[in-house]
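Subject: Sanity check before I submit

Could someone independently write out the structure tokens for this chain? I want to compare against mine line by line before I put it in a report. The sequence has 90 residues.
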Amino acid sequence: GKINISVINDENEILIKYIDNISAKSKKIIDEVFSDDYDEELNKDIGLNLNIVKLLIEKIGAKIWLENKENSTTFYIRLVSKDRRTNKRL
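---
Independent answer below. Compare away.
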């Protein structure tokens, strides 16, 4: 396996980019987890951890999405920077 992680930090947000060369079978599971009609009860063991991560990230107001390509999958996580949160609350 090959993993590439990069972090891009600007004034307002932090973007984490995670690239993995996962198998086609795993890509199908990931697509299901990120769909709006994912059913935790039907998919108890398949992708549950990833679904929990997705829900936690969305709970803090961040965004997560993915981009599937033939030989890799890229996950993006966009977080609000601390400075922006502070400024927004004032």
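---
OP: Matches mine. For the report I'm noting this point. The radius of gyration is 15 Å.
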